[in-house]
Fold this sequence. Notes:
This protein is α/β, with parallel strands linked by helices. Helix content is about 35%, strand content about 15%. The chain contains eleven helices and nine strands. It has helices spanning about 25-35, 85-95, 125-135, 150-160, 180-190, 195-215, 230-245, 250-255, 285-290, 320-330, 335-340, and strands at about 10-15, 45-50, 55-65, 70-75, 100-105, 140-150, 170-175, 270-275, 295-300. A nine-stranded mixed β-sheet has the order 1-9-8-7-6-4-5-3-2, sandwiched between helices.
Amino acid sequence: MQLILRRKQVPILEDTFKIKNRAFKNAHLNTIYASLVRWVPRVKFTRERIENAEGDFLDLDWKKTGSKKLVLILAGLEGKSTSLYSRAAIRYSNKQGWDAVCMNYRGCSGEPNRLLQGYHMGATEDVKFTVNHILSIYNYDEIVILGYSLGGNLALKYIGEEGESLPKQIKGSVSFSVPMDIKKSNERLNKWYNWHYIKWFMLTLNYKANQKKKQFPEALQDYKGFFMSGNFVYFDTHFTAPANGFKTVEEYWKLSSCKPHLPNINVPSLIIASHDDTFISDNCYPKKEAQNNEHLYLEITRYGGHCGFVRNFFEKHWWMEERAFQFIANLEGKTSSKSAKKLAFIEA
């Protein structure tokens, strides 16, 4: 594959997200409509379970077209293959002639994982294990990773950690709404205008954590969450960090954030974030990192919410998938002159 993307001096891409219905200028409507309301047809998956050396498993949900090209989808917090944006990405990838697979995180495929260790913001060992499995079993020439929120953090951290050792089949990545500074983003999520998101996430997170506490009471004796109680600071302090072998919550936040790994990314990677995203902190817009790394591309949109980017009611295709494949087409040298103009660099 010949890469045709060329850098100029300014690292910020033109905002190509254009609202068609003024209602979606509201960040909360955009976020909630995309994740809960919008209708996306179901996908008939083929499930593959892979076992790791520690005695745990990951479930991969496949939808193939017979292609030599693959999109690997990494969902957001508590996301899975059946999430609306995952289904939309899989269906759109197939229409573009690509195979698609969603890596369901531990405990997110409909069955609890076996170990105390689960998925978290920095669990790139599971991404690496999945990629290596795919490459050892299947014969793909090109792999592109699509990451949403937590999944975007995993994608960027994995690619940055691997650096020069990244498998040659991985040609690039596209990540949306990435909370790349976990500590600061958790503080932002604790603001009053995000209370409904916190309660929604805590419902399923506390349920799963209490199931783990029944299995491993000694390891989680300080965790006392229930129903919709707590927030991410409490949850990470008393569950995520101890369950995944971190000495402190500060260590978990520091070691799991992808931002320190951005300078080491060496394949074209597009990062998309909206100005009105109420989840991520101000330092999650990596302008300096994009300016200093020729492989990073940053597009900051005016609207879009958190992993929303809905333009209108009853759209057939989401802007996120259209934008991702516009970038992928650039990697393959298939960009039209009209699309190329949209990729021109402008001042931030």
